[in-house]
Amino acid sequence: MRRQNLSLVLRQVAAHGPLSRAEVAAASGLTRAAVSSLVEELMGAGLITELGAAPSGRVGRPGTALALNPQGPAGLGAEIGVEHLAVCAVDLSGELRACARTETPNRGRPPAAVLADLAALLRVVCDEAAATGLRPAGMTLAVPGLVGTEPGMIERAPNLDWTAVPAAEMLRSALRETGSDDLAALPSEVDNEANLGGLAELWLGEHGRTEDFVHISAEAGIGAALIVGGRLLRGARGFAGELGHVPVHPEGPQCPCGARGCLEQYAGEQGVLRAAGIEEPGGDWIASLAVRATAGDTEVRDALERAGTALGTAVAGAVNLIDPGAVILGGGYAELGQWLLPGMRRELAARVTVRPWRDHWLAVSALGRRGPLLGAAAGVVRAIVEDPGLLAGR
Amino acid sequence: MRRQNLSLVLRQVAAHGPLSRAEVAAASGLTRAAVSSLVEELMGAGLITELGAAPSGRVGRPGTALALNPQGPAGLGAEIGVEHLAVCAVDLSGELRACARTETPNRGRPPAAVLADLAALLRVVCDEAAATGLRPAGMTLAVPGLVGTEPGMIERAPNLDWTAVPAAEMLRSALRETGSDDLAALPSEVDNEANLGGLAELWLGEHGRTEDFVHISAEAGIGAALIVGGRLLRGARGFAGELGHVPVHPEGPQCPCGARGCLEQYAGEQGVLRAAGIEEPGGDWIASLAVRATAGDTEVRDALERAGTALGTAVAGAVNLIDPGAVILGGGYAELGQWLLPGMRRELAARVTVRPWRDHWLAVSALGRRGPLLGAAAGVVRAIVEDPGLLAGR
Asked: Which of A39, A128, B240, B247 has a beta carbon 3.0–4.6 Å from A98's, enabling a disulfide?
């Protein structure tokens, strides 16, 4: 019960702070005495700090304003991309406080080598965060692959050419080997980048968004995160969201997955580049396409138009099936929105007919490709705010 | 708190009865005294009954066995089909105690006339149930149409040619006009038949099934119920499960919904009959196709084979997207399983490739077309067992 009340107080301060103890008591329904005792404990754990006298229009002695501690526990996000590594640290309020990124071609590299590089990057970012008084409380690793129900394990990452990689354990080893025993001891999780991109949109995206939406993202593959009632739908075995392998034209081109006519054949990296007549984009295919489309390259624009249509067909099926309140185009797709959206809107209008659909329910994410990394870090601090008891004993 | 404990005791008896008070206390963690007091209240409400001495291998005075009261509150299910009306009553344990069905062509009939007929059928079934000591506690109406978030309202039922029908209110009026004020006063809900078929599978289907599955059913249209973590996924606006309008061949035949190549064009009533070269089936199209296919009609078998393939394509997309633990072929489709399953299995094997899929995760419902009606009635009593406080004051 006390654990629940700690969370209640902390969530009030997180959502509406700075707040005086009296305001927390009024909002939470707890007594003033109970709030004082709970605040004491939260301050002891470094989660809450006193800002000084709270502004108050009311009669009587002004309360001291409470806020989330900007030097409290931090969340670490780490990301393995096909072409890059990235790490960031956010404070309790989810604000970005340190980050670093390196461009490294990871496709086909041994997992141990990639995770050693990531361990070094984690060290750099943590030292930078520590200099501003932040202490890392946990980390989440975003990966471009299938993460099933076994904790810390990447089951398959076709775009890295990895299978059954115990990523969390290997990262811990790499951290220990480089003397980062403090980071190796942190609780860590591994999740699919598309899932984390969707959660980032839920937690950090624009206000007023529904808690039921589909977030679509693309790096090398195409992934979707299904957010239902404010929670990520992971599926019975942890593999929900494989929008990239929804059939669009059942007799279409052969997909490396073994099926024919999957969405990825039309709207994934290889499919779009092939349609645009580009042999080898060199580096960042999304940026490369955006540059050419902006310059008026009609072949690229047509390819993106067709990709948008295929995305729209697949998403129309998803909308008919799960009835989301919105569809958000995120990840790399966000940068191609102006060329993808017209085809998507046309398909949605034509195929979502037995129930309401409004054009503006399809929107572009403001987080874009930063989503998965920010979502990874934000998830760590959100878990602490939801249940500060998680920190007890550490 | 007491309300929660009433539920705890009742759920124990429902799941594991007959049980002695001592056994309930041991299983629930409540004291023997608390259990006795709670049982007293549940017996007073007619929810629990004493069966006499409980069989017990233990030393000491044998306890009295407690069981759900077979003469307690009943759940009423009512169903409006395109070609029939049906009503049933189940007791607290979900056992079918009375039912009646009439064949009536409802397509295009005014809602008031259909609901008047249904009111008469409800009277008959309730009188039959009352003769065995059951008292109806609530009813749910299963309808072949879209039910949104407004309680009691059918938004669209294309196969009945109904739009914006306040079904719950109209049924209450019809009951009052025929002197059934007792039934008009009951709490009532309206839900889509595909949703109720899926819930019936969850509640009454074969044991050991996953709590994450997709239940597919067909009457005139095609509907799906998405069960996620033991709950029905209704969607942001209440319209989830429109599998029938998932695109299968984007440039396929025009669907009355306005789109092209929807699943219904291949696996719905009109689509299958057209493919089988049947102009006018007369009555029950499912039964008619089953008879012809059993007799070896190759045109019908080929049409069902193609329907199964289209179902498999659409379901493969759904499986990639939401990762259910199983797919259950229910409703009328259950009777066509032997002809539909081969194509479905082939498509699922070919298109669900980036994550595990086992052939036996696709199965046929044992409830079949009885599902929606049984699910409607069972939902009423399940709500009472989950929260017996619902009955308080009545």
From this structure: A128
